[in-house]
Amino acid sequence: xxxxxxxxxxxxxxxxxxxxxxxxxxxxxxxxxxxxxxxxxxxxxxxxxxxxxxxxxxxxxxxxxxxxxxxxxxxxxxxxxxxxxxxxxxxxxxxxxxxxxxxxxxxxxxxxxxxxxxxxxxxxxxxxxxxxxxxxxxxxxxxxxxxxxxxxxxxxxxxxxxxxxxxxxxxxxxxxxxxxxxxxxxxxxxxxxxxxxxxxxxxxxxxxxxxxxx
Length: 214
Prior knowledge:
By secondary structure, this protein is an alpha/beta fold. It has a single domain (2-208), classed as P-loop containing nucleotide triphosphate hydrolases (Rossmann fold). Helices cover 45% and strands 19% of the residues. The protein has helices spanning 14-27, 42-52, 73-77, 92-99, 113-132, 150-158, 175-182, 187-190, 195-212; strands at residues 2-5, 32-36, 59-62, 82-86, 104-109, 137-145, 166-172. It has a 7-stranded parallel beta sheet with strand order 3-2-4-1-5-6-7, sandwiched between helices. Strand 6, helix 6 and strand 7 (166-172) form a beta-alpha-beta unit. Helix 1 (14-27) crosses helix 9 (195-212). The mean pLDDT is 92.
């Protein structure tokens, strides 16, 4: 299973979500790879923190344009049960290349109106990829949701006409995320009984069901 986190707008929790999913699948005894395609290399930095603290973590590698070439990602991915790609914002060329390899494109969307508006560009990229690869699945996940706020409640309604399915699972803004990632962990391995961990587990399970539906 190859899942690409692809969103053209920054600040929507793309890297955090990628790492959380990877750690959850690794926790479930699935050999997991994270591919850091973002020049900021935040996922790679997280992996270095995890190694320094002797954490059990997914493998993290950095790749850029050309990753679809023979001997690159396709060869590497064959050795893993799950592969999570953290795509950079504003890199249409690289995202298009990734979408030619992924089983599922996951588009994180924050709770604000500007996040919803900015999603249109990412949706367009995905839909164009689906015309070439009809088997490519795609979905939007609401991230950084502010519970019990008007903005939080209205995001799903605002996404109704976006053109892609919106997952039932929503990821809220919680301090557990920052605490976990700062120590080389993720919500489900840092605080397994926390609401943040429950959301990550639900998200991972919903993605698995979506991919299995073939």
